[in-house]
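User: I've been trying to design a sequence by hand for this structure and keep getting stuck. Would you show me what you'd pick, starting by listing the structure so we're on the same page?

Assistant: Good idea, let's start from the same input. This is the structure you sent:
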């Protein structure tokens, strides 16, 4: 089993996943630490937070340059964080918006669980099943060599796919991410694995994803 030292302040694993926010599942992946907390938020709170994020976020349509052409990314985004945590993501420069009370509350709960500090969060809005994120690793220099990234899901359940960079490490994995869940992407994951959120044909319900990150100042 992988070392759990990154997750030092989490409470002991419990058999009860129905209401315990600290219940976690270890996802067995070669060379990577990945934990899933299906009930980090209870469904009522998760749905309230979803409504707040949908209504109060200044969503932006960012563009990405692919083969010399500027295209809309297939989702809306917003970036919040401490003043000095600006971030370049696939050629998009994101200056952080100031923290909202709701984001600060979720950040503090996530920090308590992980024992790690975060100074920024990327919000993704997948308006429906046509929105997606392509295969990538979150391995930008600003994130440091082996980042811990906390990924929270609100709204429609969507499937995150993971594949090893070295195909001999195994097949693609598919992880449904539930409303109110937390996926903790730990040691080795960005280095050895890629992830994507494919389109979900026919889905008309939105999903909001938060990824808490720690941005190291590049100055
Ligand atoms: O929406 C998700 O679950 C994944 C988002 C993601 O991988 C990212 O923003 O880097
Ligand atoms: Mn990612």
């Amino acid at each position: 089993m992988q070392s759990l030292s990154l997750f030092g302040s989490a409470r002991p694993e419990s058999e009860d996943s129905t209401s315990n926010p600290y219940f976690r599942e270890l996802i067995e992946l070669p060379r990577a630490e990945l934990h899933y907390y299906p009930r980090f938020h209870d469904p009522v709170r998760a749905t309230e937070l979803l409504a707040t994020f949908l209504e109060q976020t200044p969503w932006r349509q960012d563009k990405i340059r692919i083969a010399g052409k500027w295209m809309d990314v297939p989702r809306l985004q917003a970036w919040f964080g401490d003043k000095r945590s600006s971030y370049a993501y696939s050629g998009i420069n994101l200056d952080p918006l100031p923290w909202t009370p709701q984001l600060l509350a979720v950040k503090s709960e996530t920090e308590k669980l992980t024992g790690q500090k975060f100074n920024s969060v990327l919000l993704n809005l997948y308006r429906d099943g046509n929105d997606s994120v392509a295969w990538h690793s979150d391995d930008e220099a600003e994130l440091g060599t082996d980042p811990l990234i906390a990924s929270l899901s609100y709204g429609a359940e969507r499937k995150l796919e993971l594949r090893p960079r070295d195909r001999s490490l195994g097949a693609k994995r598919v992880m449904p991410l539930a409303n109110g869940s937390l996926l903790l992407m730990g040691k080795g994951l960005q280095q050895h694995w890629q992830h994507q959120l494919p389109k979900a044909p026919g889905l008309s319900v939105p999903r909001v994803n938060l990824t808490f990150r720690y941005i190291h100042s590049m100055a």
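That's my pick for every position. To get oriented when you compare it with your attempt: Residues 1-12 have pLDDT under 50 and may be disordered. Residues 43-56 form the longest helix (14 residues).
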